Amino acid sequence: MPSPDTSWLAESIMARRGLAKGQPGQAYAITEASQGKYHYVYGPYATPVLTVDPGAVISAETHDAFEGKITSESDKPTEILNFPFLNPQNGPIYVNGAEKGDCLAVYIKEIVPRGPQPRGTTCVMPEFGGLVATGDTALLNPALPERVKKLEVDAVTGVKWNDKITLPYEPFIGTIGTSPEIEAISSLQPDYYGGNMDLPDVGPGAVIYLPVNAPGGLLYLGDCHAAQGDGELCGVAIEHPTVTTVQVDLIKGWKFKWPRLENERVIMTIGSSRPMEDAVRIAYRELVRWMAAEYGFDEIEAYMLLTQVGKVRLGNMVDPKYTLGASIRKTLLG
Amino acid sequence: MPSPDTSWLAESIMARRGLAKGQPGQAYAITEASQGKYHYVYGPYATPVLTVDPGAVISAETHDAFEGKITSESDKPTEILNFPFLNPQNGPIYVNGAEKGDCLAVYIKEIVPRGPQPRGTTCVMPEFGGLVATGDTALLNPALPERVKKLEVDAVTGVKWNDKITLPYEPFIGTIGTSPEIEAISSLQPDYYGGNMDLPDVGPGAVIYLPVNAPGGLLYLGDCHAAQGDGELCGVAIEHPTVTTVQVDLIKGWKFKWPRLENERVIMTIGSSRPMEDAVRIAYRELVRWMAAEYGFDEIEAYMLLTQVGKVRLGNMVDPKYTLGASIRKTLLG
Amino acid sequence: MPSPDTSWLAESIMARRGLAKGQPGQAYAITEASQGKYHYVYGPYATPVLTVDPGAVISAETHDAFEGKITSESDKPTEILNFPFLNPQNGPIYVNGAEKGDCLAVYIKEIVPRGPQPRGTTCVMPEFGGLVATGDTALLNPALPERVKKLEVDAVTGVKWNDKITLPYEPFIGTIGTSPEIEAISSLQPDYYGGNMDLPDVGPGAVIYLPVNAPGGLLYLGDCHAAQGDGELCGVAIEHPTVTTVQVDLIKGWKFKWPRLENERVIMTIGSSRPMEDAVRIAYRELVRWMAAEYGFDEIEAYMLLTQVGKVRLGNMVDPKYTLGASIRKTLLG
Amino acid sequence: MPSPDTSWLAESIMARRGLAKGQPGQAYAITEASQGKYHYVYGPYATPVLTVDPGAVISAETHDAFEGKITSESDKPTEILNFPFLNPQNGPIYVNGAEKGDCLAVYIKEIVPRGPQPRGTTCVMPEFGGLVATGDTALLNPALPERVKKLEVDAVTGVKWNDKITLPYEPFIGTIGTSPEIEAISSLQPDYYGGNMDLPDVGPGAVIYLPVNAPGGLLYLGDCHAAQGDGELCGVAIEHPTVTTVQVDLIKGWKFKWPRLENERVIMTIGSSRPMEDAVRIAYRELVRWMAAEYGFDEIEAYMLLTQVGKVRLGNMVDPKYTLGASIRKTLLG
Asked: Considering only CB atoms, which chain A residues are within 8 Å of D309?
């Protein structure tokens, strides 16, 4: 995988407004050993695994969403997995100076697969997924049979689906976010603080902006995917363990409600809700307001322009809330 | 308000399966002083205010949802209220012997209004309510103006709306539930453990059955309403402080996913989700399964019978999840 | 079945504002023979079976929703039924003087079962129903098996479910409405003109008010149910053929968007949409506007009062749009 | 605008299975004059404007969605437009030999803007759009003010938004479909037969496959857009009159429920429903079934592969049903 072009970063919001000016600072590693206990909730009740200054560059050994427990295609997920102890997270990382009303900027530098092959896992489980009856869409139909697929994942040669089909390695962070102020919410859920968004745009070369709700921000991350289609249809992407490297900056006083993202081409807002139209409404309203607050549009003009050029990316349609991103090309911001 | 007829209680599930056989045990009071700090999340991270045996009868001084801060019709809720510190809860109450997979049975004996008049409050707030744009149904329309209405609430004479209209005093507990296993979730939210269901059936004379997810069950309650229509349309019922008395029993090994309720006439299951049809699906699927597991129906027969006689009650259409109850008359269970 | 008390009718909106002042006029019968071809769409392209003046009292021989084709519990609906030729309707009835912007008032006088026993039918069909995957909630789960239940229906002794369970005979009109202006829409669908609402309140003793969209109004009706629970859960109530008698009046210039209903106790508005919360929003907004236009409330006051006393009835959660009614007791209108 | 590369067409499904083998046949023009009365419903009750054999190439003078009535930025849409007489359609075109259970293949050759400048129109109207309260999402908030924007549209230089922003001319057909069997449904609605899908993929270079429900198929089309973002957010894209040229073929016995599409890169299925997740479910289930029926996958394997590589395109989030397309790259079909 070629390194993404990073020249645009010098003009990013992180570089222009971050305390560290988007410059890399001290480097840290979170190994499996130094992480110790992984976390299954996003909340303020855990002890930070690291305390860092803005600019810190952190490489974390992430587990896959199943903590590596599914090792064979004959495994039965329903027998092996123990809800709610799913989707283990690294962190929390306490960022010095971060207070409610600030913003953590997290630049995703690199995602590298790790662990023995076949290191990729996807599966179909009962009452989970976008095209089956679930705990929420609670129906009487019989479930589909369980099925596990183990896949070789390589950063260069991609994900081998079968002898005829190979998928490109297009990794991203499935779950990343800050802590709520007083809640501790399952790492299976996406929400206003980030969490299990499963949005492929949250990959190398992007900066995600997360609202700070609790002191230090308390950044969590994990659940990296080697590939994923729009919606994460059966509920399980190509899950795999990685070394994921991010650079964290702090923007004081940049207050907004929902995660924002920037890459070389676009600015994006991210909404999570049910039904799905509410997630799109959140994302687009946040984008309208962002364009009005910082790019010189009035709200109705922004609304009318997005009608012609806005793009929507479906992240997940399987988690407790659905996640979508709404974006506009930077060149169309005038 | 006449006391509800309680003779049916001797035949209730609580009486038949509870460790205390539905008999009242030791009495406790939770005053404002003994409660001290009220809680804004349902979770396992708080210290119990009481530890009791099954059978305990507990009278709690509940605050209204605004902790009494709205005292005048000229108050501005947006200036006075401090999200997420809303909907204060009494508890948690640790019930000896309660383990994951058990059920807490909570019989609601009495709700008595307390505090100086006008002790009732309802209001319209921006971005909150069933007929306005909200944080989830995120739109660009201007908000409605804020409006507060203070009302005299009396257990005998009712709720005085204006000179021409008086509402009967029909109190219930807006928010009641057990703790999640590892999550700590806002008391504004209803979910599988109960919480902010805002379902009028949860009133004097009913027994609510709550799944135990954490040791001791950890019962919370608060947010009593003097009256409420189906859906709690503007988001704020007749909120009022009370002394609420419940009797708690423990049913070992009665495991189910969502709250259940029983009164003299019906058995009911309660679902909370979005969109609203998913909440109804949850409630009805739970009722089908209950009828199949304990009342001698096969699932399809139960499904077909509920088609003819099932009743649905809309609790709230304003909270983070909508809540509905599905019920069947006991006399139709054969 | 005792006749409903009709003394309140003299004070009904139909009596106060109808051209016939709510008085019965000429009587008509629509037999199977005089109806000839039944209809499967609500639209302006069919020839009226009757042309009447306001006040007309019409007794129609309705078919059941399956046109009587399911006669045995061993029948397979998927083999017998021929979509879209389902839910046959009597009509259309042309009401002299009715123009777009007017209102047809339809007082439901009586529903009497007819035809050989067992004349009642319910069934479970693949991809149809409230607790199964459907054509809209399109999933990969296997379907439930088909099942047909035939039942004896008697106006006095009720509906015999089995040896232990008998349901009261509580009939209503499942499908009734006027024609859209230029559309012709399946009789399986409920919408702003009425149609397949499957709302139990539309029974003897009620007056339903329907907006006129096309010249003559073009009233259709059919699909009477002997009993039905909230939501019509499996999609098929106790379907049965009847003689249904209605009295039609015309209110000039009473213009509104969605069906309204009145009985001795309440006024009700009816909304149909998806997701379900949108149907409730429609119903409640219409009720707010009605209270503001005709009962002396300002909109926010009506909104706040309905929060405390509004009632919601779930009609169907199985048709192309879900239907709910929102109501308030007349005694609470001040 | 360069002509799209059409070499792949020789391998298209239209070429392989169409009666005309994808070869262009006789050419026809539908002018404003020859069309005469445009249509506002998709149904079988109108007289065909053309009867053609498979292979016919038809150039139609389409109106914009407002039939050209909005000519100035000071116009008030609410005063000018006359619901339901909106979204005028050319057609219907009767294709000889087309019967229920067949498929019309429609290759979109070209869309050329016509009419005097500024020929493009977008606007904000009350109770219509994706970020405002509407007739379905019926709320009490005040409406946004009406606003009209007229724009110069040129096939080469694009759409001039303002002095700083120019949008590329990326035209497509907003509304296209066949007739339902017995219904006549507003041209504002998308559904299983096509209609007002507002999906940008339905542009030059694509073949859309439409199910035939009525004799002759009865093709309608209109409502071309010069540009549109995902979701058509405010409800009105860059509406403009065009000459649109399509080539129609007939595939006998290719029976499916929802529209399908093919272009050089992908195969796509299109679903329309509410809530939005149901539209995605429809599209993805149809794609799973297509892959299982014609590309050698079992259903669960297709489901798991789409989880990793499926793409979703949001067409509209403003029409009576929301429309989304689900697609997979042809190179990933193995």
From this structure: 167, 227, 229
